[in-house]
């Protein structure tokens, strides 16, 4: 898959839970039982607490130096422990004027029906997140994630030809979208550092390679030093992330992004 051009690594013998395990806990986030999530091996500190290197952004455009969209944040928990993608999409669609909630989107998004098959604790077979949501979104059973194409299809159901898939475009294109008034659902990691641990399995003869701590957020703003995201897991509105950290994390997840015009 274009979003998983990663070298094959040995399975780590634990189960994935996608975005439900990605971000550090805060007083605003709902705790996820350890039996249902993977403990991230990344540092749990906020990106705002580390030095923020400035990203060399294009200067030959009309994009303003900063922009911020005032969009209410929606929590994925407690109903959707693995539902960061549809929750981020709910924020985007509500901003676009659609009164649709995360639970409706969770029912509507395409599902990957292939059941999980394990051997000695390792995942051997499971679904393809490029085809639909893999596993259980609620966290009652094992679940993982869904990637850009199924989410684009769901967005198109509401926005029609206004739907835009920015997957594979430049980071500056994401900022251009926000500057124009359109937030962007992006795939990254929960702590916005490049993933260091990977799981792989077979799906209908295709090898799926994924990071343990995949996450999706809504990009809502930027300035010279930081990007700002609505994070459905920590329930932080306009959570600031150093540009280079977000860019690196987003690229590691295949530069996936969807929005509208």
UniProtKB/TrEMBL annotation:
Residues 24-53 are annotated as: Disordered. The keyword ATP-binding does not apply. InterPro entries: Peptidase_C39-like (IPR039564), UCP032442 (IPR016997). It comes from the Bacteria. Residues 69-232 form the Peptidase C39-like domain. Residues 1-22 form the signal peptide. Residues 25-48 have a biased composition (Polar residues). Keywords: Signal. This is Peptidase C39-like domain-containing protein.
């Amino acid at each position: 898959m274009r979003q998983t051009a990663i070298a094959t690594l040995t399975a780590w013998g634990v189960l994935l839970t996608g975005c439900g395990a990605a971000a550090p806990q805060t007083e605003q986030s709902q705790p996820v039982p350890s039996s249902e999530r993977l403990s991230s091996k990344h540092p749990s500190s906020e990106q705002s607490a580390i030095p923020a290197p400035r990203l060399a952004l294009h200067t030959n455009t009309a994009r303003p130096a900063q922009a911020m969209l005032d969009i209410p944040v929606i929590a994925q928990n407690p109903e959707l422990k693995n539902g960061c993608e549809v929750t981020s999409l709910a924020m985007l669609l509500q901003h676009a004027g659609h009164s649709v909630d995360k639970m409706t989107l969770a029912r509507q998004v395409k599902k990957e029906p292939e059941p999980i098959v394990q051997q000695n604790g390792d995942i051997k077979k499971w679904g393809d997140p490029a085809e639909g949501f893999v596993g259980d979104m609620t966290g009652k059973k094992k679940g993982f994630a869904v990637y850009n194409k199924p989410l684009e299809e769901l967005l198109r159901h509401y926005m029609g030809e206004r739907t835009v898939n920015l997957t594979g475009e430049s980071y500056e294109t994401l900022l251009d979208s926000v500057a124009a008034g359109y937030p962007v659902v992006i795939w990254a990691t929960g702590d916005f550092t490049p993933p260091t641990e990977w799981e792989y399995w077979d799906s209908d003869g295709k090898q799926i390679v994924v990071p343990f701590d995949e996450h999706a957020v809504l990009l809502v703003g930027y300035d010279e030093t930081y990007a700002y995201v609505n994070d459905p897991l920590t329930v932080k509105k306009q959570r600031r992330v150093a540009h280079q950290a977000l860019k690196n994390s987003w690229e590691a997840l295949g530069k996936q992004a969807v929005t509208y015009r």
